[in-house]
Each structure stands twice: as structure tokens, then as C-alpha cells.
Design goal:
With 88 residues, the protein is of the alpha+beta class. The protein has a single domain, classed as DNA polymerase, domain 1 (Orthogonal Bundle). It contains 3 helices and 3 strands. It has a 3-stranded antiparallel β-sheet with strand order 1-2-3, with no helix packed on it. Helix 1 packs antiparallel against helix 2. The longest helix has 17 residues. The protein is flat. The N and C termini lie far apart (55 Å).
Length: 88
């Protein structure tokens, strides 16, 4: 598997196509790439972009790279054990 980078298209050198067997197919955008693109469309400064991406990256690492839905389920299970109305 190999990746193609494109500087001219404004992608910033990130791989945006991945070879899959017979042809080249577009790669699904990653979370940080999506956030970066959204911030650039809104003309945020590069320093703000770095700060936001750093916060997101630290949040993901803090939650052990689990999906947010899984984190919410775990939080609900933990809070149900602490409920004063729990029976038995």
C-alpha cells in the first residue's frame, strides 16, 4: 500500500489517496485533518490551529483512544454505581 501526496491542491502534503489493489481510491479523512481543514476555511491563525489540535490530541490520548460513544457508555455505567437510588 502506498500513499500519494499533493502540494498543489492545498492538502499540505498529507496523503489523500491510497492504493488499493488495482487502483487508487480516496482515503477517508482523519479527525485531525478534518478539524484542520475546518479551521483553515474559517481563517483561524496557525497558532490557534496548533492549540486546538493539541487539545484534541491530548483529549484523545487521555481517554485511551476510545470512541466517544464508548466513553459515554462507560461514564453512564460508572455514574449508575454511585446513584443513591440504587437497589440492593
Amino acid at each position: 500500500m502506498w500513499a500519494v501526496t499533493c502540494e498543489a491542491a492545498g492538502v499540505g502534503g498529507r496523503a489523500w489517496y491510497v492504493s488499493e489493489g488495482a487502483g487508487i481510491v480516496p482515503r477517508t479523512p482523519r479527525l485531525l485533518d478534518t478539524v484542520r481543514d475546518a479551521l483553515r476555511v474559517r481563517h483561524y491563525s496557525r497558532r490557534t490551529e496548533r492549540a486546538y489540535l493539541g487539545w484534541i490530541r491530548r483529549h484523545i490520548v487521555f481517554h485511551a483512544k476510545r470512541h466517544p460513544a464508548e466513553t459515554a457508555r462507560q461514564k453512564f455505567r460508572d455514574s449508575s454505581r454511585l446513584s443513591p437510588w440504587k437497589e440492593g
